[in-house]
């Protein structure tokens, strides 16, 4: 989107959880979210809602800075799914599949659902909540899994995209908190 002007300091808090039906930022834009901008709510003294994967779960391991990239979904993307680049349209993504053995083909993890044809931010570096296979344990190196949009333990050189901070299902069934670093 040519001519779209914004300051990166305008991006913060809940901005990264918003999705759009039109291109609000130039697709491919990256932005850094500082640790004090991580969204959170407190219910009865417990922090909840710090991830779009579950508004009622405290993902206590989410901390530090995150790098996000603004993308267009060419397939429905669910919160927590690992996304891959679709090279038919610049900066478009879809849930990853078993063919993604190279991290360079991956785009990031969606913290919020993005509808077909809509735009949103996905995490390419930092802590996140990701759909995970049952073999994931704390400390597992992570790679794309055969289940669409998920990760599993993977230790083959050159295929890892991050590390699990907890076992699959430790905080929320079928998900793991992880640190990812996608080029």
Descriptive report:
This protein is mostly beta strands. The protein has strands at 19-20, 30-33, 41-43, 46-48, 66-73, 82-86, 92-95, 106-110, 119-131, 141-144, 151-153, 162-164, 175-181. The strands form two sheets. A five-stranded mixed beta barrel has the order 5-7-6-8-9. It has a two-stranded antiparallel sheet with strand order 3-4. A hairpin with a 6-residue loop joins strand 10 (141-144) and strand 11. The radius of gyration is 15 Å and the shape is globular.
Count of DSSP E strands?
Answer: 13
- Tell me the overall shape: globular
Helix content: under 10%
Low-confidence stretches: 1-9
Number of helices: 0
H/E element sequence: EEEEEEEEEEEEE
Oligomeric assembly: single chain
Strand share of the residues?
25-35%
Please tell me the overall pLDDT.
Answer: 85
- Main sheet makeup: 5 strands, mixed, barrel
- Class inferred from helices and paired strands: mainly beta
Q: Could you give the order of strands across the largest sheet? A: 5-7-6-8-9
Radius of gyration: 15 Å
Distance between the termini: 23 Å
Summed up, what is this model?
With 183 residues, the protein is an all-beta fold. It has strands at 19-20, 30-33, 41-43, 46-48, 66-73, 82-86, 92-95, 106-110, 119-131, 141-144, 151-153, 162-164, 175-181.
């Amino acid at each position: 989107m040519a001519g779209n002007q914004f300051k990166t300091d305008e991006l913060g808090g809940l901005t990264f959880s918003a999705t759009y039906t039109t291109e609000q930022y130039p697709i491919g834009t990256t932005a850094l979210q500082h640790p004090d901008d991580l969204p959170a709510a407190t219910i009865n003294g417990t922090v909840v809602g710090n991830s779009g994967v579950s508004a009622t779960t405290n993902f206590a391991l989410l901390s530090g800075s995150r790098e996000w990239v603004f993308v267009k979904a060419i397939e429905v993307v669910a919160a927590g799914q690992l996304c891959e680049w679709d090279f038919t349209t610049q900066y478009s993504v879809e849930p990853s599949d078993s063919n993604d053995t190279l991290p360079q083909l991956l785009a990031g993890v969606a913290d919020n659902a993005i509808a077909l044809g809509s735009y949103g931010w996905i995490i390419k570096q930092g802590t996140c909540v990701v759909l995970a296979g049952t073999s994931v344990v704390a400390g597992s190196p992570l790679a794309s899994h055969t289940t669409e949009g998920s990760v599993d333990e993977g230790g083959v050189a050159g295929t890892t995209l991050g590390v699990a901070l907890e076992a699959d299902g430790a905080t929320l069934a079928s998900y793991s908190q992880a640190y990812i670093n996608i080029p």
